[in-house]
Amino acid sequence: MEDTIAAISTALGVGAISIIRLSGKDAVNIVDKLFDGDLKNAKTHTIHYGHIVSNGELIDEVLVSVMLEPKTFTRENVVEINCHGGISTTEKVLELVLSNGARLAEPGEFTKRAFLNGRIDLMQAEGVMNLIESKTDLSRSTSMKQLNGTASNLISSLRSELIDIISNIEVNIDYPEYEDIEVVTNNKILPKIKEFKDKIKKIIKESENGKIINEGINIGIIGKPNVGKSSLLNALLEEDKAIVTEIEGTTRDIVEGKFILDGIVCNVIDTAGIRKTDDIVESIGVNKSLETIKKADLIIYMLNNNEELNDNDKELLEKIKDKKHFIVINKIDLDNKLKIDEENAIKVSITKGIGIEKIKNKIIEMFNLEMINTKDMTYLSNARSIALLNKVLNIINDCIENIEKELPIDIIEMDLKNSWSILGEIIGETYTDELIDEIFSRFCLGK
Fold it and tell me: Domain limits at 177?
């Protein structure tokens, strides 16, 4: 991190203001070469009016913010050039900055430097990304809790509890000759580990809500051709996103859209009708539909009220029986020929606008959206953190089992140390370079 990086930090396009950000030891010197004022003697956290000049030509009228280390986002010298918005002007200023010694930043490199320099931890860094990508007020709120360190403190507290247990075990193993220390046995640490397990389980359960808040609910609409899947998608989105015709197999590929339900983003996927077909293009769509079943958080399975259940329908019901799902029976304005035992099936007529609110209410009920609250709960809100926490839970379960089998306490200690290390991965106390590169590569350029 010896070089100075630069990037455009605002969306590229026509606008009132655009910002070119630099971070690194030479940030001030580089911009000073282009600025018709004195930045080398500028005090920290000051703004300076002037012009960017190249070979005697005025490039733009700007405001330059100077922030000196260590009280900056990256804990390095940071300079931000506020120039007039517009693609040509912004790219010209960036070009001059790069030609005078800066390097184009990689995606997320500013935030990566903030993490590596100890300004923020890994969960806070991911909170920055979540905040940028927030689509609802709920996701903004949980992202801010992650960004301000509330969730990180929760993980740090869990690590401290493990350290207390581990240190007591270490003393017994390393200094057995001391008579004034408490002898730590499997039976003495078992209640503490069970209590620790309960805390992990509670956080995981609550974090399912956090994941929903940040990532939304992926809903797949499936069924055979011409049951009204595209019509339902359009009704939920309140726009004509998918083509609707009477011709079977109109939808050849998946069609996606989003709508907000109780502050949660619902990502809806209208799939190709699932049936056996010799049409190559349609069969590709059918395969994609089957993949959607695997990936979706919720399946809406549509049937026609005026058609009997066939073998293909029964096969699909079997495929989704272990998935979170509910059935929508469409075309209730037509003669009833469908016999099905499924409880809580929702009967609708999409063309007549009957039952759409029932579908939305069912989603709210199944995901308990009315109870989701960001005011008093601290969530882990991304898949990486939750997966690591589940890994810790599995190790702790093994640990309890090993205690009950009366395995030596030093084996128990190994499990606890492993759990402590994995918890460190969540907040970035322990990490690999590959992990850090992967996480920050998902960030936008200039952040």
Answer: 150-213+382-428
